[in-house]
What we know:
Layout: H1 3-8, H2 14-19, H3 36-40, E1 44-49, E2 52-58, H4 72-88, E3 98-106, E4 114-123, E5 128-136, E6 142-151, H5 169-177, E7 182-188, H6 192-198, H7 202-211, E8 216-224, E9 227-228, H8 231-239, E10 247-252, E11 255-258, H9 267-284
Parallel strand pairs: 7-8
Antiparallel strand pairs: 1-2, 2-4, 3-6, 4-5, 5-6, 7-10, 8-9, 10-11
Amino acid sequence: xxxxxxAAAPDTSRAASKRSNGPHQVEMDGWIACAPFERLxxxxxxxxxxxxxxLSMPFVFDLAQGGGLMHGGALVSLADTAVAMAIxxxxxPGTSFVTASFxxxxxxxxxxxxxxxxxxxxxEDGTRFRGTAHLFDDENRPLMTFASVFKVPRMDRMDTTxxxxxxxxxxxxxxxxxxxxxxxxxxxxxxxxxxERQRPRLPAFVxxxxxxxxxxxxxxVQQEKMQFISPEHEALTYSFGGHGYPRTVLIVDGTVRSRxxxxxxxxxxxxxxxxxxxxxxxxxxxxxxx
Length: 290
């Protein structure tokens, strides 16, 4: 291409995109990831799984209003994004949805530090989600409450495993210390075997375990590949055998009895694993019946 052709060719660089008034084409780093506006706000996604999310946003200079406080629009954007990530954790990748309405209540101003948002959604019908978010400051004081309605095209592939409880590493440790019997699924949000292949087949697996009085829980240890959510998530992962997702673990009376069940994702393999777990639990705890 000569100089005249280069001059005539459209500028498709990122700098040119920033100068443009649209329309824009956006390539995301993943399904659960920050969009350009969210990156502009320096939002970080810490957790997003099973209809819940945890995000944070630092109070940088550009987020200040004229009085030196964090702008209310930035806080609303963080809350709205937190609910959106909670929705993304339970709908098929590529699903489109929009905020239809929201209500906010500001409780105290933000003068410094990092704001944390926790969000949770409930699926009302084929086209609507109701979401709530709560914002806290560095001292865990409430800053804002947020309630919203999102509209989604009717979906035939709604994630029916959204009701599976998501545990933190601390909750897993406490249940083990209490001598509980349960099955724990160790997953990564970026892992297609977890999110696309195993997840749609989990309801039958969970139901079969439930018939034998064995609860099923899940812990998400990574959002991005090779990046653990926290040191606690990393330690828990290695205590169960290390990398390899999904990893499905049987714990009987607080003791790990079976942990090397990695990438068990087909319906037949999950059926066999359920029967194996029930038999093992029964051998240690005769009261457990299939």
